[in-house]
Amino acid sequence: MEHYLVAIAVTAGVYALMALAMNVIWGMAGLINLGLVGFFAVGAYVSGLITLKLGAPIAVGVAAGTLLAAVVGVLVALITVHLRGDYLAIVTLGFAESLRIVMSNELWIANGTDGLSGIPGPFRAELGPHLFNLLYLGIVVAAVVILFFLVDRLVNSPFGRVLRAIRDDEEIARFAGKNVVLFKVKAFAFGTAALGLAGALYGHFTSYIAPDLFAPLLTLYVKLSLLTGGLGNSMGAVLGAVLVVFFLESTRFLAPLIPGLSAVQAAAVRELAISVALLLILRFYAKGLLPERIEPPALSASGAAPAASRI
Amino acid sequence: MHVTQLILNGLMSGTILAVPAIGLTAIFAVLRFTNFALASHMTIGAFAGFLANVWLAWPVVPSLLAAFVVAGLVGVLSDEFILKPFRAAGFITTAIGSIALTIALENCVRLLFGNELRGYDLPIRRDWVVGGLRVSPQQLENLAIALIAMALLFAFLFFTRTGRAMRAFADNPMLASIKGINADMVARLVSFVAMGLAGLGGMLIGLDTTIDPLVGFKSILSIFAAAVVGGLGSLPGALVGALLVGVGEELSLLILSPAYRSAVGFLAILVVLTLRPRGILGARAY
Q1: Which residues of chain A are within 8 Å of residue B33 when distances are taken between CB atoms?
Q2: Residue B80 contacts by C-beta under 8 Å, 6 or more apart in sequence?
Q3: Is the CB of A272 less than 8 angstroms away from the CB of B111?
Q4: CA-CA distance, A179 to A166, in Å (whole number)?
Q5: Following CA atoms B251, B257, B262, B268 in sequence, which dihedral angle do they give, to the nearest 10 degrees?
Q6: pTM exceeds 0.90, yes or no
Q7: Is the confidence metric ipTM above 0.85 for this complex?
Q8: Is 60 exceeded by the pLDDT of residue B156?
Q9: Neighboring chain B residues of A80 at a CB cutoff of 8 Å
Q10: In Å, what is the CA distance from A249 to each residue of A7, A69, A244, A271, B101?
């Protein structure tokens, strides 16, 4: 049981990394990424492959996975950055699906649908499963803390302010002399790098990755995390990820309790519950538990009061 | 494999692809958003047709009509109660909402029918061979149905008052509402017709192969590719784009394995967005 709880905590940490990444791409820059699972997969596969096949140290693998995910992110962003947001949505979704098709069919890269197994974990053999899980939890928590502070710095930096300005009104940001395209691409690169990092860490923990893991549903889980916690708020992203993983794991136990359902139907009920939860939160609770804090503009007390207060 | 045969196959699969692609681009033209829920409506249409064809033993053509009507009705309801409120909140919310909707609807189908592959009840007929080219009568029938559906749609849009009102609304919503065109009615009508076409397309694709809850999602890349290549928002563009994507996917068999068919669509999206973002017949892409 403890074993299982630690494993869930690691999963929650990986989700928190992805939610923080999406907080930059979506929450701050207002860009859509429907294929975040694709960047997660790039990180997982690159790191898994170069540690397994080239025998590179795990740290090198994770760094390479992070970097390559960012490179792919920049390419995707560059193609669509001048266009309406709908095109970025289509291209990111298409990227994730095409990557899954390629990884399922090219047996020589990573065994196709059989997946890549035996991905090394740090000191896995020396520590035994129990200590290894605890060590890995420490690593993931450290990664979340570091990314949390990076994102937090970013939010309050001039860079973060420009991103939010672009999100709220691109024309005005451009009018203020900001290179909107460059900012968007940088935000996308930062976010996709963090997604790659999350993927790489995930692969070294479970030691097994396969194309089926990178289905669009994972993208929904992360969006649900971010929305539950509060879009644009880093604390909210982490809190949301923990809550969503808890929710996901509890549906795993609850769905089979419904009498008369086959395994396929139970899985369908789970996915249905998750997508309906996302729709409901999106509709009625889009601010989340911890809404984005926006500092009030520096006005003098006697200055223009908002119209609503003068009834 | 014979190149002429591949081109012929591509033109036939492209014509069928054009049916849902026109639905997608029509929603984009009128309601200004990309509706990812198209995938699940294709699945719903395919299964509604399956119920009619296999359980009620209807012939193929009335079953296709059932696919159109059921998917269209689900489309109207899901747009009215789920997607419409999202549209006011911006396109990211709408896009994510429509993805969540498509997964929810797909799982409703999975809950009822499970994951196994199912086939329609079709008479077994011998393929026709004309001048070395092979076609099955079912393919020709599908082709004819797709062409008739598109012809009816264009006739509706150009020769009826309601159709003209829809085009006016797509062209300039503000001016159209000043002239007394009811925006809500136009939205419902376009949802019905577009999702009905998606359902029809889902069943047409299923007639050629088999169906399962993923039948819509598996072809969604090709459909988006068709709409983007032709120019999002242009109905004739969707037809041209679908034919190009269909032929491209078939010709890719010369050098790639069949598993890559939908990746070809993605490649087409990337090429078009890089070279000519507004597509072949689209107005603008920014």
Answers
A1: 86
A2: B188, B191
A3: yes
A4: 10
A5: -50
A6: no
A7: yes
A8: yes
A9: 273
A10: 11, 28, 8, 12, 22
